[in-house]
Amino acid sequence: TSQPTGDVTIGITSQDTSEGILQVGLTQLVFTNITWNSKQLITVSGVDDTLQDGDIAYTIDLASAVSTDPNYNNQNPVDVSIINLDDDKPGIWLSPNHSIITKELGAPLGMGCMSSCGNEKIDITLTSIPAVGTVVRFCVNTDDTTEADIQVPATKILEFDSTNWNRRKIIEVNGTHDWI
Fold first, then answer.
1. CA angle, corner 119, sides to 115 and 125, nearest 5?
2. How far apart are CA 108 and CA 121, in angstroms?
3. pTM here?
4. Which of 41, 59, 122, 138 could form a disulfide with 15 if both were Cys (CB 3.0 to 4.6 A apart)?
């Protein structure tokens, strides 16, 4: 609130760099007897951690001032409380994200086949990391085996966990030739 007789230096750190980081190179604020009443901007960026961990509160710590001016030396400014809003919501990503068309195996080329006559592929991943120790399982099947056959692991189960949540798994849907 008054002009210092010497520089006033205040260290700055993020209490939780997994949630919020300071702009690159910013470790302190320095107020001189010329800039003492000028605002100094501290830029803090929330970290997108891909965890479903909810909104997390953390602090930007402002250290006690260091100055040759005894009126400012060891003055401890109030730390800044911040909340990093969690944008990671559980979800499933499918591609394509629309209806697919299969043809009966052996259908002549050029009769409306989308990518190859008889089959289509569906890619699936999760949109965020499940909690450690959690396994997300999908049982893959068809309700009409006379029209389509599903090609996935022999168990017909796809599993995702915290180590493979973003690795795509492929489901192949083959049209079944029913000779009708």
1. 85
2. 19
3. 0.62
4. 59
